[in-house]
Amino acid sequence: MSGWEVEVIPDSGTLFLRVHKVHVREDDSIAAGAFADHGGGMSVDWAKYATPHDTRSHPTKGPGNYGAVSMNAGHVRSIDALKVIHEPIKDHPTLPDNRAHSEVIGDKTNEVRMKLGRIVDWAIRLGDPIRASYR
Prior knowledge:
The structure is a single chain. By secondary structure, the protein is an alpha+beta fold. It contains three helices and six strands, in the order ββαβαββαβ. It has a six-stranded antiparallel β-sheet.
């Protein structure tokens, strides 16, 4: 089976990031630690192929421990030369297929993480009901 085509995510595109409860402050804001690289970049899902519920459901350790935030791809790109790259996962030996998978590439300094924290909005807050994917 062949993989999905890599597409250009437009600046108007929406990205979803899964946020673990340890990165949510008492005032419901997101701690800078949520904006971390895992491997080559910060893993996000492109809204063209995923819902916030899809993004929240990725972890195997219980979606109830996670929320999901949304951010605009153009706003992400405007922060200190961050890049947003579509990197769908298909037929990977250890990862589930995910056509929406994308990466935010670039140095996540404390300043960059603080800027990311200012451009996100909650898509699913911690404690919101867990629902099946819309797709």
